[in-house]
Amino acid sequence: xxxxxxxxxxxxxxxxxxxxxxxxxxxxxxxxxxxxxxxxxxxxxxxxxxxxxxxxxxxxxxxxxxxxxxxxxxxxxxxxxxxxxxxxxxxxxxxxxxxxxxxxxxxxxxxxxxxx
Length: 116
Fold this sequence. Notes:
Oligomer: single chain
Shape: globular
């Protein structure tokens, strides 16, 4: 079955960096776009960044443009999110997402906390 497992979250000071990873299994990873979402306490889940199946097209939320970079390794079936210049408002639970045959799959999430 489809599984997505996130890792790499943690506590970091404002201005610091973290790299999140999502390991995928159970589907043909190289044929699907992958997306990172986040959800802060009391707020709705929001799209952070998305990458096409080949990695040639990426999109970012305005709030993270120029600071975050999404990438993927189709051989290793992983998608990563490099987060630089972190701000306290980036604090959230970060989720990896795949839409496989129109069904949305989510990982368990990894917590990112940015202290000021």
